[in-house]
Write a structure and sequence with these properties.
14% strand; six-stranded mixed sheet; four-stranded antiparallel sheet; 14 helices; alpha+beta; 539 residues
């Protein structure tokens, strides 16, 4: 780069790198196609065969067209139009490509159970057939008890005693059932990792049942060697630490099971879910409210994490957002908790994950304390958690906060700060280390649950096209600056082309019409095989 020309030298790095220099003269308006074949082979004959196969540009063009058609069949045709071409292209193509790849190999070093389960839930919104196939594959690693392992490598399970992997199963299964509109899916037989089989519904029921029976202090669910936060691996290693966030997430999972029970006519199960959900919510409210927000956990000795009384780890984002998602804090607590997040965790990069990040390793917290404050889970702007907040802000109709969240999250949006990352894929975090050269830099890309949850947030909560058993309900929370915008959504064979008109941004929906006729209520009609035009007037 310094010389301005290649020298033909060998690379001497641990991982192979290559630079290619070509000298081309073109007349004005001219063009030239140059096939570049890159690969590895152990014999010259293989190299020669590859060069012969791809020497002609037409061969590369044909392969490119076939690849694009294949990928297009996976990611579907749903599109958005918001007046920003880069944002629309990212959300319409690249975002779903990241999700679809995640269902196959998340995460690079291993197959993470919670990771793939969330990615499959996102995939279900635009490719339910492939989501169904991937779901059966991943569920085959679940134990017959309902518990699910953290990961597997080359088919070999690596358990790691984590407490949350199975809590993601219900929402993913419900998303698939709602998208397909077929309750019979719940009766399909799916294996466990011991070779026994049970219905898809039973996989969900046992997942919820396992955590209900795995409770300790305050009636909350044990944290074990980590919940969603892998780095809080010492909080419950003795078997008595409990997770407030996981108990909230269980309430959400239990609600998904309750809905599936109603859909499939299992009335007794639905009643049991309702009773247990009320009991768990009461336990959280009784033990986890700190006066201004919800605490994060109680360690093995009963000490609290995430309290105003804590010098470090004072306020965690996760339980505040999930209090909204899981339907807690109806008496104003959830709103107050989100107000505390906005007041105390916001920075120019977005929403930090924790206030007063840990400054030293702790035998009762774990690896999180070994990370530099402002790094990833330990006080960085962790995008997966930030998407949870985006969902919560939508549910609370905080339009301005939704706009701020989108600006922080989207990798090609530089309105809050200059992002130095790939513009076509989510990374896992922005480093928020004060005074560091890494301030605002991205963490690892591709391997993050941000993508699937962002797609869910965008289509279901921002545009408000919410799947239910009866059909799509319309309940948007658009950023005020978007003005007129469009979302195209496929659902059970019907294509909805939804045009939003924001006459008074931040206001409720005032009118909905379908193919020019006024719609009573907010439930869109199903017309398989047809494209219907929907107009939503806001204000």
């Amino acid at each position: 780069v310094v010389r301005g020309a290649c020298t033909g030298s060998d690379q001497e790095m641990e991982k192979a790198v290559m630079a290619l220099e070509l000298h081309v003269d073109l007349a004005p308006g001219g063009s030239l196609a140059v096939p570049v074949v890159a690969g590895v082979d152990t014999a010259r004959a293989g190299i020669a065969a590859a060069i012969a196969q791809w020497r002609e540009p037409a061969a590369a063009d044909a392969e490119q067209a076939a690849l694009e058609a294949s990928i297009g069949g996976i990611i579907g045709r749903d599109r958005i139009s918001t007046g920003d071409a880069d944002r629309d292209r990212f959300c319409g193509v690249w975002l779903r490509r990241q999700i679809s790849l995640g269902t196959q190999w998340a995460r690079v070093r291993h197959n993470g159970y919670r990771d793939q389960m969330q990615d499959i839930g996102g995939l279900a919104l635009f490719n339910p057939a492939e989501a169904r196939r991937q779901l059966h594959r991943v569920l085959s690693y679940q134990y017959a008890s309902g518990y699910a392992p953290r990961t597997w490598i080359d088919g070999a399970i690596r358990d790691k005693d984590f407490s949350d992997n199975h809590v993601w199963i219900p929402a993913t299964v419900r998303a698939l059932v709602l998208e397909a509109g077929d309750a019979a899916l719940l009766d399909e037989q799916v294996p466990f990792n011991d070779g026994t089989t049970a219905s898809l519904y039973e996989h969900v029921r046992r997942a919820v049942e396992w955590s209900w029976n795995d409770r300790d202090q305050h009636g909350l669910i044990r944290m074990r060697s980590g919940d969603w936060n892998d780095c809080m691996d010492a909080v419950g290693k003795g078997g008595h630490g409990v997770s407030v966030w996981l108990s909230m997430a269980w309430c959400h999972a239990n609600d998904q099971l309750l809905d599936l029970a109603r859909i499939s006519g299992r009335i007794d199960d639905a009643a049991l879910c309702a009773r247990r959900g009320a009991e768990m919510r009461a336990a959280v409210e009784a033990s986890a409210w700190d006066g201004g927000w919800y605490v994060r956990a109680f360690d093995d000795a009963g000490a609290v994490l995430g309290s105003a009384r804590c010098a470090e780890g004072t306020l965690f984002l996760l339980p505040q957002a999930w209090a909204v998602i899981a339907g807690l804090g109806a008496d104003g607590r959830a709103v107050a908790a989100m107000d505390a997040v906005d007041a105390l965790l916001e920075c120019e990069l977005g929403t930090r994950k924790v206030l007063n990040a840990y400054t030293r390793p702790s035998p009762t917290i774990g690896f999180m304390g070994g990370k530099t404050p402002g790094t990833h889970e330990n006080g960085g702007v962790y995008l997966h958690a930030a998407v949870f907040k985006l969902v919560a802000d939508c549910m609370l109709k905080r339009h301005d906060r939704v706009a701020a969240g989108l600006a922080s999250l989207l990798p090609m949006d530089h309105s809050r700060f200059a992002k130095r990352c790939e513009p076509y894929v989510f990374c896992n975090s922005w480093f928020a280390i004060p005074g560091s050269h890494r301030w605002g830099q991205p963490g690892q890309s591709w391997g993050t649950g941000t993508a699937a949850w962002f797609h869910l947030a965008l289509m279901t909560h921002v545009f408000g096209l919410r799947p239910t058993w009866a059909g799509i309900e319309v309940d948007p929370c658009l950023p005020p600056a978007w003005g007129d915008c469009v979302a195209e959504r496929s659902f059970r064979g019907t294509i909805y082309r939804v045009r939003y008109q924001q006459r008074r941004p931040g206001s409720p929906v005032s009118a909905i019409s379908v193919d020019g006729a006024p719609l009573a209520g907010t439930l869109l009609p199903l017309h398989p095989g047809r494209t219907i035009d929907v107009q939503v007037v806001i204000g």
